[in-house]
Amino acid sequence: GLRRCLISMDIHHIEEAFQEIKKTIQAKDTFQNVTILSTSETLHSIKPLDVCCMTKNLLAFYVDKVFKDHRELNPQILRKISSIANSFLYMQKALQQCQEQMQCHCRDEATNATRIIHDNYDQLEVRAAAIKSLGELDIFLAWIDKNNQGTSA
Amino acid sequence: DGVAVLPAPQNLSVQSTNMKHLLMWSPVIVPGEIIYYFVEYQGEYESLYMSHIWIPSSWCSPTECPECDITDDITATVPYKLRVRATLGSQTSAWSTLPHPFNRNSTTLTPPVMEVTKDGFHLVIKLEDLGPQFEFLVAYWRREPGAKEHVQVVRSRGIPVHLETMEPGAAYCVKVRTFVKVIGRHSPSSQAECVKVQGETLPL
């Protein structure tokens, strides 16, 4: 299934890149008591059948929205975000290629969970929402690791 | 922004072997002066979504040499645009961009260097350290007609690995190739090396 699709993904390398910027990014998050990814109805309630669709939707969320809305001047941070963004772009392509041989249907559960995440995002000012979503990347990466990888790279 | 009077670096190319990527160019020569170069890159994400964004390379912003190790910058298997410009004081050249974006899946994979030894009756192999992205597929067999080939995946790097307990008087051969998961490619196999218990390494 999906694990075979993302087998060439180096999730461990993405996690390393994020760990190096996590503290700095999360320190810029001014709404600490608010979350975008981890409300109870979202990621944690996703069933195996919906993992592929949810992975696809969240990759798109980050690639099409979060990375674009974030403004970064620090070259060290910029390099790590670029590394993650380009890795997510590669994952999207790997997922797309894989979909011909594999079901990646989107049931209501995944669609609703995705909409909640977008709604949470849209309730914040765009830069604040982008920073918070970047700071919650570890939630998404842990979820991908748990659901998609047999063993981390 | 300094007036672009310096000639731009020419002949940009990337030499990539075993996932080590080196950007090279022809030096800009101004007699008696030191020229500094600035290298920047743009992954496919930046090209598609933020084309105004160019990222300073980790090690070469600036550098004096007409080459740059971009291995730490090329961290995804997508096309990367690369550009270089020269500076001398306040003078800066125009940017020169690599003619074709570079993707690490085009790296040249070479047969790995291995050292096959015996430790008593134990067949032992030691493999060069090529970095965390490499796995080694080690094939070994007893040199006799119809012998079965065994394959072992080795991920440890630079330390001896026990392959087999050999039988006295028998000869055993080993060959190895690498696999890089993030680009999904193997290297060619190395030459086979054989050892015989109580004998020297035998040429094939």
Index terms:
heterodimer; A: 153 residues; mainly alpha; Growth Hormone, Chain: A; 7 helices; globular; B: 204 residues; mainly beta; five-stranded antiparallel sheet; 16 strands; 3% helix
3D architecture notes:
The complex is a heterodimer of chains A (153) and B (204). Chain A has one domain (3-148): Growth Hormone, Chain: A, CATH 1.20.1250. Chain A starts with a helix and ends in a 5-residue tail after the last helix. The model of chain A has no long low-confidence stretch (mean pLDDT 86). Helix content of chain A is 67%, strand content 0%. By secondary structure, chain A is mainly α. In chain A, helix 2 crosses helix 4 (75-99) and helix 2 (11-27) packs antiparallel against helix 7. Chain B is an all-beta fold. Chain B is 3% helix and 43% strand. Chain B has one helix and 16 strands. Chain B has one helix at 44-49; strands at 10-17, 20-26, 36-43, 55-56, 67-69, 80-88, 91-92, 96-97, 114-119, 122-127, 134-142, 150-154, 161-165, 171-180, 185-186, 193-196. In chain B, strands 3, 4, 6, 7 and 8 form a five-stranded antiparallel beta sheet that branches. In chain B, strands 11, 12, 14, 15 and 16 form a five-stranded antiparallel beta sheet that branches. The termini of chain B are far apart. The model of chain B has no long low-confidence stretch (mean pLDDT 93). Classes of the chains: A mainly alpha (153), B mainly beta (204).
